[in-house]
Amino acid sequence: MSTRNSVQREWIYDYIQRQDAHLSADEIYEGLLKEGKNISLATVYRNLSILVDEYKIDALMTNSKKQVYDKTCRPHDHFVCTECHKIFDIDLPYDRSIETKFAKNLDVSVESHALTLYGICHDCQSRKKR
Length: 130
Hints:
There is one protein chain. The chain has two domains: 7-70, Winged helix-like DNA-binding domain superfamily/Winged helix DNA-binding domain (Arc Repressor Mutant, subunit A), CATH 1.10.10.10; 77-129, 2-Layer Sandwich (Dna Ligase, domain 1). Helix content is 40%, strand content 18%. It is built from five helices and six strands, in the order αβααββββαβα. It has helices spanning 7-17, 25-34, 41-53, 97-106, 122-129, and strands spanning 23-24, 58-61, 67-70, 77-81, 87-90, 116-119. α1 (7-17) packs across α3 (41-53) and α2 (25-34) packs across α3.
């Protein structure tokens, strides 16, 4: 089903594309309000769902069961800092050999994978050293 573009959806998409972080719907809503956009939280949620369905953004569930949104839809992996809970895109080639290995070992058909590494980010390590 095709949806028609809306001004609010463009605001949301543009806002996400300008961010370096993975943001929750509430953070996106607050950011848009700070930019002077007249938008409701319900509109943000509705349009985020549409953007995910259209493969324009991706949705991730954090360990704390909070959904955040990722501007990058191409296959890629993530690093989650266990101290500050920031999520980082891993800027390495996406390794499809993992899918082949699991498919062979489990005798299944693997369509894709999501790898998430956990540890302490550079900023948090630096703060601990002070």
